[in-house]
């Protein structure tokens, strides 16, 4: 390529938002340049949903707003323009069958994220789109308060590309191995934007000691996790969690993590209490324990525990209780039974931190929504600069919400940037 290239729309980042923006702008007739610093597009898309790709969430707009922070209603116009049914139609048109699973989570029937990526790229097409890989955007080209284009850096040197419209779709900082290293925040600052507190969200939690490590690989379903802050109950979630060598992970832990990360960083004492028997209140659980102990009075306690808990949890549980597992059931006194009950209802872990961006599904913080026009995704500070995807200060709970945000904002930004180029060209 020569050192000067002229385009109508330049898109920085070939993730979910960038691909949607490029496809929509190109379909509307704009000459598009898509710049990606990795050697291929959609790296992060390929690992979403553990490689299965949780495409979207089949819920109402209201459900979306409840699950998106800090201000889901900012997306009202973006969702009106392009929503869950629209992305699913694209995928179905290009041969990807989908299925809706528990919790309204939508996946490809094939369980392969690569099929979703291929379909989106097929929808994009190649007409009007140039793609440059292994090029990092070093800076926006701004002259006398007007956006002129971008400067890229690669192994072969720096190249300037020119366009009146630039869309930043660089993602956040989560999973940096996929190329998300916060580049978009610096580009936004060059345009005069502020960046709200950037931190990991939907991230596993590191806990004190080796208690979780002893249970590594054990998954629990239908449990309740309660967050305790300085001894006071703060929030709770019901569902699945898993123990890891460093602490706790799984859907309900990831959901709680958004607030826990902030609480820990502010110096609070944060604990997670796991209710292993949320369907039973203390009175009903005590009655069940008493019944089972009486019915199996001559059996060892560690054997009767198999009626109550997963086998991997039993030795750790007994160790925490300080009760001999070889003790006969009829020898268990009321005080010991009470301790068993309390630990089942509140299996407590102290949170010390998190593994950082390398394990975080999403990034919280970014370009404030107050600095972006919700009807267009255009910057309120620099004309013809647009934002889409995770670079914006919007993040959501697990379940397909975050990917839909990327699809919707990318499509809208691409549409409006292309419309902007068309109206400018007719002046």
From TrEMBL:
In this chain the RsdA/BaiN/AoA(So)-like insert domain maps to 199-362
> Has the keyword Flavoprotein been applied to this entry?
yes
RsdA/BaiN/AoA(So)-like Rossmann fold-like domain location, by residue?
A: 8-415
Signal peptide residues are none
Q: Which cofactor does it need?
A: FAD
**InterPro entries in the cross-refs:** BaiN-like, BaiN-like_dom_sf, FAD/NAD-bd_sf, RsdA/BaiN/AoA(So)-like_dom, RsdA/BaiN/AoA(So)_Rossmann
Keywords in alphabetical order: FAD, Flavoprotein
Q: What is this protein called?
A: Aminoacetone oxidase family FAD-binding enzyme
Which species is this UniProt entry from? Alkalitalea saponilacus
Query: What taxonomic classification does the UniProt entry list for its organism?
Result: Bacteria, Pseudomonadati, Bacteroidota, Bacteroidia, Marinilabiliales
């Amino acid at each position: 390529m020569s050192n000067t290239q002229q385009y109508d729309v330049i898109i920085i980042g070939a993730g979910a938002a960038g691909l949607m923006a490029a496809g929509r702008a190109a379909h509307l007739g704009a000459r598009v340049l898509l710049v990606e610093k990795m050697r291929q597009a959609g790296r992060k898309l390929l690992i979403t949903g553990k490689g299965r790709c949780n495409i979207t969430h089949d819920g109402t707009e209201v459900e979306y707003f409840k699950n998106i922070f800090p201000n889901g209603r900012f997306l009202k116009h973006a969702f009106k323009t392009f929503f869950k049914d629209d992305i699913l139609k694209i995928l179905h048109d290009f041969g990807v069958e989908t299925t809706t699973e528990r919790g309204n989570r939508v996946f490809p029937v094939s369980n392969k994220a690569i099929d979703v990526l291929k379909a989106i790229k097929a929808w994009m097409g190649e007409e009007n789109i140039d793609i440059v890989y292994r090029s990092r955007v070093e800076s926006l080209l701004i002259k006398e308060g007007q956006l002129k284009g971008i400067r890229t850096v690669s192994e072969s040197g720096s190249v300037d590309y020119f366009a009146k419209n630039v869309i930043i779709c660089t993602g956040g900082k989560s999973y940096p191995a996929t190329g998300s290293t916060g580049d978009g925040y610096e580009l936004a600052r060059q345009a005069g934007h502020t960046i709200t507190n950037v931190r990991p969200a939907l991230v596993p939690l590191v806990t004190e000691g080796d208690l979780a490590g002893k249970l590594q690989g054990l998954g629990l379903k239908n449990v309740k996790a309660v967050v305790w802050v300085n001894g006071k109950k703060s929030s709770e979630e019901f569902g699945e969690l898993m123990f890891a060598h460093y602490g706790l992970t799984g859907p309900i832990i990831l959901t709680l993590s958004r607030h826990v990360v902030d609480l820990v960083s502010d110096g609070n004492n944060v604990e997670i209490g796991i209710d292993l028997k949320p369907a039973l209140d203390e009175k009903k659980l005590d009655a069940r324990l008493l019944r089972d102990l009486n019915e199996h009075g001559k059996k060892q306690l560690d054997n009767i525990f198999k009626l109550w808990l997963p086998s991997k949890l039993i030795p750790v549980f007994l160790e925490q209780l300080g009760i001999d597992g070889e003790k006969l059931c009829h020898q268990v006194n009321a005080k010991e039974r009470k301790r068993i009950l309390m630990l089942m209802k509140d299996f407590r872990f102290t949170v010390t931190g998190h593994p950082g961006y390398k394990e975080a599904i999403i990034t919280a913080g970014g370009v404030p929504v107050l600095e972006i026009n919700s009807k267009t995704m255009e910057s309120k500070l620099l004309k013809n600069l647009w934002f889409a995807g995770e670079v914006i200060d919007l993040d959501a709970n697990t379940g397909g919400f975050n990917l839909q945000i990327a699809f919707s904002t990318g499509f809208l930004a691409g549409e409006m940037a292309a419309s902007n180029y068309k109206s400018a060209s007719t002046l």
